[in-house]
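Board notes, transcribed. Complex of a protein with GDP-alpha-D-glucose.
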Amino acid sequence: MNKTIIVSNRLPLQIKRHDNQLDIKPSVGGLATGMKSVHEDGNGIWIGWSGLTEEELDDNLRAQAKKALKENKCAAVSLTQQDIDDFYLGFSNKTLWPLFHYFMEYTVFETEQWESYKTVNQKFADVVIDHIEDGDTVWVHDYQLLLVPKMIKDKKPNTTIGFFLHIPYPSYEIFRTFPWREELLHGMLGSDLIGFHTYDYERHFLSSVKRILRLDVQFNEISYLDRVVKVDSFPMGIDYKKFHEAALKNVNQDHGEKSDLQKRLDEHIEAGSDAKLILSIDRMDYTKGIPNRIRAYEYFLNKYPEFKEKVRLVMLAVPSRSDVPQYQKLKRETDELVGRINGQFATVSWTPIWYFYRSMPFENLIDLYTSSQIALITPVRDGMNLVAKEYVATRVNQDGVIILSEMAGAANEMDEALLINPNNFEEIADSLKQALEMPLDEQKKRMKFLQKRLSRYSVEKWSEEFMKSLNATKNLDKVIVAKKMDNSQQHKMLEAFKNAKRKLLFLDYDGTLVGFKNNPQDARPDDALINLLDRLNELGNTDFVLVSGRDKETFQEWFGNKSYNLITDHGVWLKDKNEDWHMLERLKIDWMENILPIMEAFVDRTPGTFIEKKKYSLAWHYRKADPELAQKRSMELNTVLTSLTSNNELTVLKGNKVMEIKSSSVNKGRATSRWITKDDFDFIFAIGDDWTDEYMFEELPKNSYTTKVGFKKTKAKYYVKDTDNVRELLSKFVTI
Ligand code: GDG
């Protein structure tokens, strides 16, 4: 039976060491809850780091850990202290975390740490590979493991891989500064489905894929090698029921049952009818906007002094990554700010800020949520922010107001909150006043909407939706009717080739035998290719023909000294083995002088594009242009050209990042079908990568082995992954 493997940096277990004994408990975080049903289903397994380094474990402890992990359906990736320093504290938290949160000034790029990131990602992938079987599904989580999908897919192509990023994905302008950007994107594209919290992150990711890797993107699908990768947004929810029920219990408890913290909070609330608590909870992280929040609160107290002695900011900051210098600096800054403001405003009966630098048990968290009239959540950048959602879930009387930064992913789903820009103190101060004075019926109206939405899209629903989408990617291949030219198809085809009497091979050149270059002149054949073509040319009873849209001059320069069969200019010119070039079709070219200026105007307005003037056609190349602008311009140019050529004399062909205009009476299909009338061919093979080759696939007899390069819509019967695979396949014709 197929299973699902979950992969995250940390396992969902809390492991503590007491001398020679390990104390292992399941952890209760949001992710663990969300993944519960996925993990418990069938033979599901969770792979991650246990939290203990190699150095901390002796044989006895290792055996204990292994047993306990197995009981909890987990497997550990073993990491050394050095791995943690370089991969986790180093690259993950000093490079990826700040860069993806737009803190470029905090981002360090160190090759040694990048090397460690790759090594440790490989360690994670290796443990997955040890546990995986064909047909299994893998769900990889977060920024520490961006390279893992590719590492698994390369070894285990018959598995389905999902990836979810819990932090923001930055805009292309930020991401492009990353020195190993291509590798990181390829790492993620090992997945079949890539999920983000919001559509904006998805949009930024697709933009990077288009601009950096120059891949084709249609809506939210990326054509990548021989696969389609789907990208979508799945806003993560919370365990709504757990928070709501805990809050109900809290508000209904007797005085005797209350915690000390609750009693102190009650004292403040009961001090006066307009005494109110403003709550903030976050990890002590520079992305959470803690100093800004304190300054904005100070600004509020100065702007609206009537609230002094009435409101109190209760600020819980949970220690986090305190080994990283920026976090230490933030802690110092926060301590100083709280000290200064408390010193400046406090009276004998009032301190404006209650500041807790520690983590609290869940029950105390609920005390804070239920006692605070206002939640003030002001991150400068935050993937989602679950605290905002948890606050909503605990408002069992539907009162309370949430002030939320629009820079948090959660803001997209929480329109009824008071949304603020965390850098605008004026707006924060005014929103605090508005929240403190908001009539109860308005509070309830807003809260009801929020609760309805968040209770429906819980964390369980989130993981269910992701898994549904991930499973659906298994059907994406079916949209494309071509079959993969796998080993067994190859075997059948080569058998047919061996047994045939007269054989014919049509090979396209660019994108098929050689990869694309920015400048078409750079795509000269390399020695290995010439060697392969020579051997194909020597095959007995076989016609091998290069069929290209290239002009005859280029092919003459590259292959003129060879005795190959060449068809150029999409079928205008033919060179038969050792004979001279002759024209297959007599073509008019007088249209060119009218069309050229129109195309030149497009070049002027679209940087990075250029026109290739061929004898019988004009090609507008846009491989080097900004992909989005080029896409737009190519549609415009297509409209203009088709309106000018309505008498069917000319055809506009869309190739791979090139648009070509040429006479309608010529195409590769006509040229190849003429060839097959020359003899009684009982084996025909044709291979090509773009639209111009579709004419050939369409016209050839039904029993031909038509093959597309790349995973695209096609009339061909088969497809192969890339130019390397083409060469590999062709070399089999000469070795059988
Ligand atoms: C990352 C992304 C994204 C906090 N203090 C205590 C405590 N907590 C719990 C909260 C909440 C969680 O920690 C914090 O979650 P956030 O979403 O607010 O933030 P990050 O830790 O930065 O998480 C974030 C998230 O991943 C999920 O994808 O939303 O944007 O940065 O659940 O309740 N829990 C307890 N004691 C505390 O003192 N028990």
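The two ends are 39 Å apart (CA to CA). The pocket of GDP-alpha-D-glucose is lined by residues 30, 166-167, 236, 281, 283, 316, 318, 359-360, 362, 365, 382-387, 390 (CB under 6 Å).
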